[in-house]
Design brief:
Helix content is 69%, strand content 12%. The protein is built from six helices and five strands. Strand 2 and strand 3 form a beta hairpin. It is rod-shaped.
Length: 287
């Protein structure tokens, strides 16, 4: 077995050399191998058939490549058209952006105008506020002056009424009624004129009609005498009138007031001693 294998290796080693150098040996080998291989003509024919098939395949492949090229070319044309459309669309978008930019600039300018307008309106409002404050101040000043003027005129009227009552040009009742009307303008008070008969003569020492003015404020009883002129004897007489009213009605007065624009010098000490408040003007009375 080993000899056969060795022989085989030697043949494989020497065979190529013998085929190249020994023509007889080469012819013998070709003759032996001929049945197992095609001759040159058959081989050439076979190669022609293979080449023909290969050419057919190449032709088909070339046609397919041509068709693919045509498709690619059409695809390129389509892509080119798409690119052109995209370019046009991009130009449109660019123009749209420019228009939007102009619109934004216009809106910005409009906003600036509105801002300036708001600033102007704010300044106008400030001016109106100043004018309104000045007007309110002027109105308040005029009102105060008018109140002072009315107060002075009212005091002047009271003086005239008192003087008229003393000179006989106006009665004492008219003077008292005028002062009572002024008192009634004070809020939350009630002015009541009382005319009652003194049967026991408490005031004058003999029976006589007694007149008083009563002010009711929050449950307080305030007895008032309103005269055009008052002296010491009038103060004593008013005190007697108050005692008469308190005894008759069983109620003590909370305050005793005499309102008279003309008060004698001796009347004040007596009024202080008796706890009677003296006022020369009705506006000065604090209720």
């Amino acid at each position: 077995m080993m000899q056969t294998e060795q022989i085989r290796k030697n043949i494989l080693k020497e065979l190529p050399i013998l085929l190249q150098t020994d023509t007889v040996f080469r012819d013998m080998v070709l003759e032996i191998a001929r049945p197992h291989f095609a001759d040159k003509l058959e081989t050439a024919h076979l190669f022609e058939e293979i080449l023909a098939k290969f050419d057919n395949v190449i032709e088909k492949q070339t046609l397919a490549i041509d068709k693919l090229s045509q498709r690619l070319e059409k695809q390129d044309q389509r892509l080119e058209k798409v690119e052109q459309q995209l370019e046009k669309l991009e130009q449109l978008f660019e123009k749209q952006d420019q228009r939007l930019e102009k619109v934004e600039q216009g809106l910005e300018k409009l906003e600036q105008l509105f801002e300036k307008q708001d600033q102007r309106l704010e300044k106008l409002e400030q001016l109106f506020e100043k004018l309104e404050q000045q007007l309110d101040l002027k109105i308040a000043e005029d009102r105060e002056k008018w109140i002072q003027h009315e107060s002075q005129m009212s005091k002047f009227d009271q003086r005239l009424m008192a003087m008229g009552a003393r000179w006989g040009s106006q009665s004492e009742d008219a003077f008292r009624n005028g002062l009572a009307a002024i008192l009634k303008e004070i809020p939350d008070i009630e002015v009541i004129h009382v005319d009652e008969h003194d049967d026991e003569g408490i005031v004058f020492g003999y029976p006589e009609e007694i007149e008083l003015d009563i002010i009711i404020k929050n449950g307080l009883l305030i007895i008032v005498e309103m005269k055009s002129a008052t002296d010491k004897s009038d103060v004593y007489r008013f005190e007697k009138k108050v005692r008469f009213y308190e005894q008759k009605h069983g109620r003590k007065a909370n305050r005793k007031l005499i309102i008279s624009p003309m008060v004698g010098k001796k009347a004040n000490p007596v009024a202080q001693k008796l706890g009677i408040e003296l006022y020369t003007y009705v506006q000065n009375v604090k209720l």
